[in-house]
């Protein structure tokens, strides 16, 4: 699998909802961008308790999903932006069913590995709520599995828009991002699946722990 990165997007923490701040508004960068252990430099996360860090270093939300959201939300200018959902990487022709936990990708000089699906939060609804009635977006993401995913950075390096995102190693081929999301975030895992996820080597430790906790 080899796809072109349409845009690399980063953001800074800004006022978002009263006293809250967020860096969900990601804007395209020009030229070469560094990819470090915690992701693109610079790229902020307002609440480091639940966002960012090595296991959520780089976020990809498929551009192919924007067409679905246009039907759901209307023809919003926000959906013209490659980082509309807080995504760092804008890529077409790849979705959650096409990739797996532990898949490794070359991007420019960097090496990335898929660590986990993205779990949606209220900030997505608030981001779109200023332009339309966005109530229920989180529930819709959970229902449809249009979640996106995170990479960890195995090797730091430079990249830029126009570079290829090329899969060079298949990870846990039985665990697509779509199946993992359905099992752990949508809560539809069987006991056997939970046992497997709790011991899945390339799954983010936090989600391994979540699977183990469900077993208990």
UniProtKB/TrEMBL annotation:
Chain ranges of the MOSC domain: 27-168
InterPro entries documented for this protein: Benzoxazolinone_Detox_Enz (IPR052353), MoCF_Sase_C (IPR005302), Tri_helical_YiiM-like (IPR005163)
Stored Pfam families: MOSC, YiiM_3-alpha
Name of the featured protein: MOSC domain-containing protein
């Amino acid at each position: 699998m080899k796809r072109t990165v349409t845009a690399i997007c980063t953001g800074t923490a800004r006022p978002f909802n009263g006293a809250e701040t967020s860096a969900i508004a990601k804007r395209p960068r020009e030229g070469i961008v560094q990819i470090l252990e915690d992701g693109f430099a610079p790229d902020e996360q307002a609440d480091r308790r639940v966002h960012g860090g090595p296991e959520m270093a780089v976020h990809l939300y498929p551009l192919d999903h924007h067409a679905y959201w246009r039907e759901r939300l209307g023809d919003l200018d926000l959906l013209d932006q490659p980082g509309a959902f807080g995504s760092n990487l804008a890529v077409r022709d790849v979705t959650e069913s096409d990739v797996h936990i532990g898949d490794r990708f070359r991007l420019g000089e960097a090496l990335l590995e898929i660590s986990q699906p993205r779990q949606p939060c209220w900030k997505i609804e608030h981001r779109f709520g200023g332009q339309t009635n966005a109530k229920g977006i989180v529930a819709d993401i959970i229902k449809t599995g249009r979640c996106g995913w995170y990479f960890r950075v195995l090797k730091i390096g430079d990249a830029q828009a126009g570079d290829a995102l090329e899969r060079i190693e298949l990870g846990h081929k039985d665990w697509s991002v779509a199946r993992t999301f359905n099992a752990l975030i949508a809560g539809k895992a069987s006991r056997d699946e939970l046992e497997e996820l709790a011991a899945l080597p390339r799954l983010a430790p936090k989600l391994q722990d979540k699977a183990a906790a469900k077993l208990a």
